[in-house]
Design a protein that fits this description.
The complex is a heterotrimer of chains A (about 80), B (about 550) and C (about 400).
Chain A: H1 2-11, H2 31-45, H3 56-59, H4 62-75
Chain B: H1 6-21, H2 28-44, H3 48-78, H4 85-131, H5 149-164, H6 174-182, H7 184-187, H8 195-203, H9 210-243, H10 258-290, H11 307-313, H12 316-331, H13 334-345, H14 352-378, H15 382-400, H16 402-411, H17 419-441, H18 445-457, H19 461-468, H20 475-498, H21 503-508, H22 512-529
Helix pairs in contact in B: 1-2, 2-6, 3-4, 3-5, 3-6, 4-5, 6-8, 9-10, 9-20, 9-22, 10-17, 10-18, 12-14, 13-14, 14-15, 15-17, 17-18
Chain C: H1 2-39, H2 46-54, E1 64-68, H3 70-75, H4 78-85, E2 89-93, H5 102-109, E3 117-121, H6 129-134, H7 137-144, H8 150-162, H9 168-172, H10 175-178, H11 182-185, H12 189-197, E4 207-209, H13 232-247, E5 252-256, H14 266-284, E6 288-291, H15 296-299, E7 307-309, E8 312-313, H16 315-332, H17 342-368, E9 373-375, H18 378-388
Parallel strand pairs in C: 1-2, 1-3, 3-5, 5-6
Antiparallel strand pairs in C: 4-9, 7-8
Helix pairs in contact in C: 4-16, 4-17, 17-18
The chains are: A mainly alpha (about 80), B mainly alpha (about 550), C alpha/beta (about 400).
Chain lengths: ~80, ~550, ~400
């Protein structure tokens, strides 16, 4: 989680990732942020996030993102 | 059957009554399907074959893909013991390729039909021009567009891609699937519904609910207000602008000046929003009465602070479709990764600019492609392509110049949260949107450029004042447009501040008496100020030819 | 148990309130539409008043019914005719009417009146076809004041197929066409309610303008019997009207009112020739006809004294034309006045007095050089009453 939060705050230092739960549905993260984030996460966690995974539920909070990462890691 | 016509109202009411009166609740969705079929055949009889092809091919493709997935899983399970990891992977890959081929075939077929019907004539003419021959003599398909083809094609293909990505279960019942594709409130002009969000709502039976009925009617009335009180009235002026030859003029009238270009563009901005969002409201209101929540397609778009935001507030479902099925796949494709990677590895990539660009360039290009497609989606004309390019460039540049922009803002000590700064952003965005609209209004690209040139150079107010009278609207008409626009503006600000969806939600917070009075007043305004009856020519519903 | 019972009770209360609110909404909307349809749609003009006040006349009290356009109500004074000849009459005429208006006007009038003679002003049949096909406000004036009936629906269907920019629905509910005028007509609401609540008017639908003009002398070519052909569609309308009159066994006189036609108005002369054609058609069909244009000098009309414009007489010319036409009706056609009840006689005697005041006021304004339209309205009646008292 620490690593993830670091990546997130690097990307968008102005956002409170520890507490936000509507990052996508409230438009806090836009498409460009998502793409940037996805490529970074793919590299850092050795996973392949696909467009199918880009649903708000998976990216609305840091917890949700961690869940997605772990799920994808299991699949490999 | 136009959305604001009496026959359509009767049709919708009868459908509602039949739906709620039908005793076998679990089959109420069949009523919706039948009404959709009736509506489609009534309006577009000769072209019914096209939607049937789409329904059939997508239905089969989705189920076939799901079958392959199921078979693959079963096979892998069965051979758990005797297959190696490589064998398993190879088998899975082969299945994946099969599914991809089916997806590609279905997409090419359906988009091919759309493309051919919509753009064949334009391309044929363009090719002829390039080859130096007469574009008029080029081969042409003489067909109108099947009703809603631009919308249902996207709805159906979105579903198919979701099934491919395994984010949606395929619909096993072809009739239920047909309902999803042909559902009449969305067939005329969207929204482009998402299967996951809509399907269950369509199939699950609903009962007549007071709140839904009340709110549904309020939403319909609000949509009618926007459409026949504001939009259709303003359209008279825009139509007159066209009939009088625009800036070129014609035998009966001299051309219009620069101030008029600005004025007509503003009128167009008002008309387009009121017309499109009004129609969507009518559709959403009907669905609300039926107990179905259709997706929002507009969220006070002119309050956007950037073009990116604008496309998240205007024709929301088209933007969402493009994002999910075009933007993300392109931005996350291997090709994009390669390009980003090579920039990052190059010497340029070691600079701050280079680092930024390596991350942003491919997404910026993906956006550009999206907006090119959005432009093309609107129609077969060079001006729509220009429209798409204009939006795409703005977004591309704002993405790439992002940090530069932020730096200069900080240097000027401008707080991002300041109210006046937000206002400035809104006005700036609105201006960019207006430029895009000039492309819509103009006959073609060069006409658009000349219009903008005039707007910048010709500021004769005297000419404007005399030209104002030639637009077919009298002083009282302009006054009622202004008054109603102010009402619209007030509502929009309230919705923006409260983050509620519709004026019905705003009213719900008030007492019953206020709600009653507001609805009464709204209906009276529609009855008195509406542009209906033998005194008016029927206005064309802009998005119906999509 | 107790909370359950009160809950269903309050549910019932809520449901009752909601049903009430919904019903109230629908009822108030319908009531508003009907009110606006009756009082706020078609502007309060003298034409409107004339038709409204016609319906105030007691049933079966009109001996002579005049149908037509502005030449009728400016050229004929019912009060003066009563004074001179004793028969009662009323001009069911709306300005600018074309021949499409004759049948609906007659149909509407015959609901309450059974006149001994119907006088039809043929001028409205001489217009160009596009005018005949497009003039529609007059039908709305008639239909607004006609109660709903099967015949009205049939008429609405017929008219909407003949006249542009009319629909059956809007002819039955003019609100559909005129709803946009409602805010503007709010200013006239008081006048409209005034007329609607009044009894029969002593002015009997009269209207002229208080003015004379330096008109050129009437040209002899306007006295011709020559005809010009009518458009196919116009002729069909007129034939249908004549068939209708025959089917109802009506006694009809087709007239042309005298106007100051000169060589300088080729269009008007053309209309005159077409009007002659209509008189010819009427004659062939066995109806009475009277071409008053030919009798211009015999009537004693003076171009620069009796007319407020080349087509319409002022009070001076009106008396002369009424005198001539009334005499023709009485002596040539033998229309005898009916026996009037006491109340009717009082009413009509009164109208003679009012007409006297009307002429007096008109003369004053003409001599002052103050051109005013003087049409039948409660306001004018009140003003004239002051003079009489």
């Amino acid at each position: 989680m620490e690593e993830l939060l670091e990546i997130l705050s690097d990307l968008r230092p102005d956002v409170d990732f520890e507490n936000e739960t509507k990052l996508v549905t409230d438009g806090i993260l836009d498409s460009f942020d998502i793409i940037s984030l996805v490529s970074t996460l793919n590299d850092e966690f050795d996973i392949t996030i696909r467009p199918a995974n880009l649903v708000p539920d998976n990216f609305n909070s840091a917890e949700a993102m961690l869940e997605l990462i772990e799920k994808l890691q299991d699949e490999e | 059957m136009a959305l604001t016509s009496v026959p359509f109202a009767i049709f919708a009411i009868i459908t509602g009554i039949l739906y709620f009166a039908f005793p076998k609740r679990e089959y109420r969705w069949v009523i919706l399907l039948i009404s959709g079929c009736f509506f489609y055949v009534y309006n577009s009889f000769q072209y019914t074959a096209f939607i049937l092809i789409t329904i059939l091919t997508i239905y089969l493709a989705a189920n076939r893909m799901a079958a392959i997935t199921a078979d693959t899983k079963a096979a892998v399970k069965a051979h758990k013991a005797d297959w190696s990891k490589e064998e398993r992977k190879a088998f899975k890959e082969a299945s994946g390729k099969k599914r991809k081929r089916i997806l590609a075939a279905a997409l090419i077929l359906n988009f091919g039909i759309l493309f051919l019907l919509k753009y064949f004539n334009f391309l044929s003419g363009s090719v002829a021009q390039i080859l130096g021959s007469d574009p008029e003599a080029a081969p042409q398909i003489h067909l109108l567009l099947p009703l809603g083809i631009s919308f249902y094609t996207f709805i159906a293909t979105g579903y198919l891609i979701d099934v491919y990505r395994e984010t949606a279960e395929p619909e096993k019942n072809i009739f239920k699937f047909a309902l999803f594709v042909s559902f009449f409130p969305q067939i005329i002009q969207g929204p482009i519904s998402n299967y996951g969000k809509l399907r269950d709502q369509l199939i699950t039976p609903h009962d007549l609910d007071w709140m839904n009925l009340k709110h549904g009617i309020m939403i319909i009335c609000w949509g009618l207000f926007k459409k026949i009180v504001i939009a259709d009235r303003v359209w008279v002026a825009i139509r007159a602008y066209y009939d009088n030859g625009g800036i070129d003029g014609n035998a009966d009238a001299a051309g219009y000046g620069g101030v008029m270009v600005v004025f007509i563009t503003l009128m167009y901005a008002l008309q387009l929003y009121a017309d499109f969002s009004g129609g969507i409201d009518i559709s959403r209101g009907i669905c609300r009465v039926l107990g179905i929540e259709l997706e929002m397609n507009f969220r006070q778009p002119y309050f956007s602070k950037s073009i990116s935001e604008y496309w998240r507030r205007w024709h929301i479902t088209l933007g969402a479709w493009m994002k999910n099925y075009v933007f993300y796949p392109i931005a996350m494709s291997d090709m994009s990764k390669k390009i980003s990677g090579s920039i990052a590895k190059s010497s340029f990539g070691q600079t701050a600019a280079g680092k930024h660009l390596s991350r942003v360039l491919t997404t910026a290009i993906a956006s550009f492609i999206v907006f090119l497609l959005v432009g093309i989606w609107h129609g077969a004309n060079s001006k729509y392509i220009a429209f798409g390019v204009w939006n795409g460039l703005i977004i591309m540049i704002s993405a790439m110049a992002g940090p530069l922009y932020e730096k200069s803002r900080n240097a000027l000590h401008i707080r991002a949260e300041a109210a006046w700064w937000k206002l400035f952003q809104m006005l700036r965005t609105f201006l960019i949107v207006l430029v895009g609209y000039v492309f819509d209004i103009a006959d073609n690209f060069s006409n658009a450029m000349r219009m903008m040139g005039l707007a910048l150079t010709d500021h004769s107010l005297g000419a404007f004042r005399s030209q104002l009278g030639t637009l077919g609207l009298g002083k009282t008409e302009y006054l009622s447009v202004i008054a109603c626009t102010l009402i619209l503006l007030y509502m929009s600000i309230r919705l923006e501040k409260t983050a509620l969806d519709t004026p019905a939600d705003l009213l719900e917070r008030r007492s019953g008496v206020i709600q009653w009075l507001a609805l009464f007043a709204l209906i009276m305004m529609i009855l008195i100020l509406g542009t209906y009856g033998p005194a008016f020519d029927p206005a064309e519903f802009i998005y119906m030819q999509f | 148990m107790m909370t359950e019972m009160t809950e269903t009770k309050s549910n019932k209360k809520i449901r009752r309130r909601r049903t009430l609110a919904a019903v109230l909404l629908v009822v108030s909307l319908l009531a508003s539409i009907i009110f606006m349809d009756h009082f706020l749609c078609i502007p309060a003009t003298f034409d409107q008043n004339r038709v409204l006040l016609f319906h105030k006349e007691p049933a079966d009290s009109i001996d002579v019914l005049l149908i037509g356009s502005s030449t009728t109500y400016s050229g004929f004074s019912s009060a003066y005719a009563y004074d001179q000849f004793g028969f009662t009459s009323y001009p069911y005429a709306i300005g600018g009417s074309t021949c499409n208006i004759w049948k609906p006007a007659l149909q509407d009038a015959l609901r309450t009146q059974h006149p001994k003679l119907i006088v039809v002003d043929v001028f409205g049949g001489g217009y160009d076809l596009d005018l005949v096909e497009s003039r529609n406000s007059q039908v709305y004036t008639i239909m607004t004041h006609t109660p709903l009936s099967r015949e009205k629906i049939e008429t609405a269907k017929e008219l909407s197929s003949k006249i542009d920019r009319t629909t059956t629905a809007s002819l039955l509910l003019p609100f559909i066409k005129y709803h946009n005028s409602v805010p503007a007509n709010l200013m006239d609401l008081k006048d409209r309610l005034d007329v609607a609540s009044s009894g029969p008017s002593p002015l009997k639908g009269i209207e002229t303008l208080t003015r004379t003009r330096e008109l050129a002398d009437v040209d002899d070519i306007s006295f011709t019997d020559e005809t010009a052909p009518l458009d196919e569609k116009t002729e069909a309308v007129i034939n249908e009207f004549m068939d209708y009159c025959k089917s109802k066994d009506l006694n009809v006189l087709f007239v042309k009112y005298p106007t100051v036609l000169t060589k300088n108005d080729p269009d008007e002369l053309q209309v005159n020739l077409r009007a002659n054609r209509i008189l010819e058609m009427a004659d062939e069909a066995g109806f009475h006809t009277l071409n008053m244009q030919k009798h211009f000098h015999e009537i004693g009309l003076k171009e620069r004294e009796d007319y407020y414009n080349h087509g319409h007489t002022n009070t001076r010319g009106q008396k002369k034309v009424t005198g001539f036409l009334g005499d023709y009706i009485q002596n040539e056609l033998g229309i005898a006045p009916s026996d009037l009840s006491d109340s009717l006689r009082t009413e009509w005697d009164d109208s003679v007095r009012y007409y006297g005041a009307y002429v007096e006021m008109s003369e004053e304004l003409i001599n002052k050089g103050d051109p005013q339209p003087m049409g039948d309205s409660p306001k004018l009646v009140r003003e004239l009453k002051k003079r009489l008292d």
